[in-house]
Design brief:
24% of the residues lie in helices and 30% in strands. The protein has three helices and 13 strands; from the N terminus they run αβββββββββββββαα. The protein is elongated and about 95 Å long.
């Protein structure tokens, strides 16, 4: 009797608590997460935040400096960094990677830790609505670090609604404690819309561009456009002309040598012509100068005899 009386009394309360919990926190798989979030009667489109982002913080530890470098992509896996050894970066399938770099003056930087704080295989995206300030809390999970431990890594993004913020404003690296990376990000994309409201007609912001001359990430979209290589028509003409002159002198010298047994300057083809070229140029220049030079007038209009 006691058991039968307890169930009807506690069942509504338990159901209400369960519904509140499910409405405030949602768990999805990595395959289901496409940067579109809906919870608590609101929806968010985070696709404007896609692309690779890098934030860092610096901690002084004399005589060295520690740099915590965080790279992440909300919507896709990171791309492997070009020019960086494989043992100094997170492997394929990582969504967020933390590198600890030790720096010392006049010495090469040393990467002392590579921590995959969020991986696709263990992502388990979890998000909930923020009330004060308004926004969205988003959490990704990663494997244990080090692998021999039982402490899984994770990263929490606190996306704060800021209508007047620069859409291209970068996030802030807040902390890394007990295996949890915390990042704050004030962005218009964190302003939720009612589920029944149609999407805004404003053009979406372009994702941050990934430079080829800096370490980039693996898994994102790559541009198919390549810089066009254009040759100079005038330069090509002079190149052909130079090659023609070279062939003329080489073949002419060979002909004079094999036919007449010429030596030294006698090898030059049409030697007499080339010897006269400077004088011909001098005559041409003199003629042009005399043509262009204005005639000098005399006083009173008389011409000297």
């Amino acid at each position: 009797m006691i058991f039968q009386h307890f169930i009807p009394q506690s069942l509504p309360f338990n159901l209400l608590s369960l519904l509140v919990l499910l409405s405030s926190t949602v768990l999805v798989t990595a395959e289901d997460f496409d940067c579109h979030v809906s919870t608590g009667g609101l929806k968010w489109d985070l696709t404007s935040l896609k692309g690779s982002h890098k934030v860092s913080r610096t901690r002084e530890s004399p005589p060295t400096t520690m740099v915590d470098e965080l790279r992440f992509n909300l919507c896709k896996n990171l791309k492997l960094m070009h020019g960086v050894p494989e043992d100094e970066q997170c492997q394929t399938g990582t969504r967020a990677c933390l590198r600890k770099i030790n720096q010392k003056t006049e010495l090469t930087d040393r990467v002392i830790a590579i921590i995959p704080v969020a991986s696709t295989s263990t992502l388990e995206p979890e998000y909930s609505q923020l009330d004060s300030p308004k926004g969205l809390s988003l959490t990704f999970r990663g494997p244990p670090y080090p692998t021999s431990s039982d402490d899984p890594q994770s990263i929490n993004f606190s996306l704060f609604c800021a209508d007047d913020a620069d859409p291209k404003a970068e996030p802030t690296f807040v902390s890394y404690e007990n295996g949890i990376v915390r990042v704050d990000w004030s962005t218009p994309s964190a302003c939720g819309l009612p589920d029944d409201q149609p999407p805004s007609q404003t053009p979406p912001q372009d994702p941050p561009e990934e430079d080829d001359d800096t370490p980039t990430d693996e898994g994102g979209e790559e541009s198919d456009t390549k810089p066009a290589t254009r040759g100079s028509g005038l330069g090509f003409f002079f190149l052909v002309l130079l090659l023609a002159f070279a062939a003329y002198f080489v073949l002419g010298a060979y002909y004079n040598y094999s036919t007449y047994g010429a030596r030294g300057v006698d090898l030059i083809p049409h030697r007499d012509f080339w010897r006269e070229v400077p004088y011909m140029l001098q005559d041409v220049v003199s003629h042009l100068c005399s043509t262009v030079r204005p005639q000098r007038s005399t006083r009173g209009g008389y011409i000297a005899v």
